[in-house]
Amino acid sequence: MSKIIIKNVENMDEKTAITLKIMHSLPAWFSPPDDIERKAVIHREYPFIVAFDDDAPIGFVALKIHNQYTADIFNLGVLESYHRQGVGRLLIETAERYCIENGYLYLTVKTLDSSAEYEPYERTRAFYQKMGFVPLEVFKTFWNDENPCLFMAKWLSAV
Known about the structure:
This protein has four helices and seven strands.
């Protein structure tokens, strides 16, 4: 692995291109294609942090700002060949610094609850817990009946 560089990306077209490339390469986590296309447009308006290996984007986190206290990890994706190499950790740590510098107290994330029994998201939940997020509530119909939403949060003042 080359040296990983983390950057805030401001250019809207670059945000879209990176979203499409990474999310389309992760079908176990992101689908259907029209939802990926919709999120690629939404990400244009959000703070967007990208991990690069040389000049190639390998991961990103898009943050949705809810209010003066809370930001949300709207989407986070890392190319599967870079999983378990610290890229996700670097993205979360950079997102936390961004939030702290901008006065947010909480960072939240929504992910698939364990009641859905889907292995890729077992790893996702374990990752967020390792990063200090705690489960707060399950919303059984937030997305749809087959995809119960686990709402997790991290208090940033403790970081």
